[in-house]
């Protein structure tokens, strides 16, 4: 049975040693990940693997993303402490917890009711009081709460969902995997330059579960 000291040692090894060697340089992201106990966001049977740099199953065909990918996507958002973030794909709540240690407020959407409920309870129990969990079709965003300084999508769409683009603030950043359900996928960053002007950048190849919903698959 692993104890808190074991997890702390593994967390430091992953975040202070491994992730910087893999290209993560943003100190705010590394500090946020250090402050979030990933072992609290995985099933008991997978707890001992919490600090492997790998995705882990969380049920309903979903996963808690690989720590490197979480760090890379959050780093790409270029967050400032005063900003509000929209996350699509709450899952276990891990990435929302990391985001909440950098941003002022995180709104996160999960389409699976049971995952949304468990994430909401978990985050409340752990004291993450600047996160709000919503259960709905994430591809449509949360127009009633827009605009957002940053939007992060933890599933792959066939394209960038138009409703999410419209919910970006001017100067806002959106990071999302785009591509085929099971084939080639690219991580894209979109920056809103003006009302109808968006800059698209390719950040590399990734592999995510499909983004299911009205504006996704």
TrEMBL record:
Q: Where is this chain primarily localised? A: cytoplasm
- Could you tell me where this protein is found in the cell? Cytoplasm
What is annotated as the active site? 65
Q: Which UniProt keywords apply?
A: Cytoplasm, Methyltransferase, S-adenosyl-L-methionine, Transferase
Q: Does the keyword Cytoplasm apply?
A: yes
* InterPro entries per UniProt: PCMT, SAM-dependent_MTases_sf
Per the UniProt entry, the Enzyme Commission number(s) are 2.1.1.77
Keyword set includes Thylakoid: no
User: Which residues fall in a coiled-coil region?
Assistant: none
- Which Pfam families does this entry report, sorted A to Z? PCMT
Q: Which reaction does it catalyse?
A: [protein]-L-isoaspartate + S-adenosyl-L-methionine = [protein]-L-isoaspartate alpha-methyl ester + S-adenosyl-L-homocysteine
Specify the superkingdom.
Answer: Bacteria
Family under the similarity heading:
Belongs to the methyltransferase superfamily. L-isoaspartyl/D-aspartyl protein methyltransferase family.
Cite the NCBIfam families for this sequence.
pimt, PRK00312.1
Purpose: Catalyzes the methyl esterification of L-isoaspartyl residues in peptides and proteins that result from spontaneous decomposition of normal L-aspartyl and L-asparaginyl residues. It plays a role in the repair and/or degradation of damaged proteins.
Name assigned to this protein: Protein-L-isoaspartate O-methyltransferase
Q: What organism is recorded for this protein? A: Novipirellula rosea
Its gene name is pcm
């Amino acid at each position: 049975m692993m104890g808190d000291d074991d997890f702390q040692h593994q967390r430091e090894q992953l975040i202070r040693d491994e992730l910087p060697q893999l290209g993560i340089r943003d100190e705010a992201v590394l500090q946020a990940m250090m402050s979030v106990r990933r072992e609290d966001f995985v099933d008991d049977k997978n707890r001992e693997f919490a600090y492997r740099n790998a995705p882990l199953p969380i049920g309903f065909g979903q996963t808690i993303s690989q720590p490197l990918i979480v760090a890379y996507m959050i780093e790409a958002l270029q967050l400032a402490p005063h900003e509000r973030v929209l996350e699509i794909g709450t899952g276990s709540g891990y990435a929302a917890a990391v985001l909440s240690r950098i941003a002022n407020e995180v709104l996160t959407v999960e389409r699976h009711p049971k995952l949304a409920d468990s994430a909401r309870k978990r985050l409340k129990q752990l004291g993450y009081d600047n996160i709000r969990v919503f259960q709905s079709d994430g591809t449509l965003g949360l127009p009633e709460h827009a605009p957002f300084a940053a939007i992060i999508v933890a599933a792959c769409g066939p394209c960038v969902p138009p409703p999410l683009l419209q919910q970006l603030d001017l100067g806002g950043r959106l990071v999302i995997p785009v591509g085929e359900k099971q084939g080639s996928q690219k991580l894209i960053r979109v920056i809103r330059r003006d009302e109808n002007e968006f800059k698209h950048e390719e950040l590399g190849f990734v592999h995510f579960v499909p983004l299911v919903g009205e504006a996704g698959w």
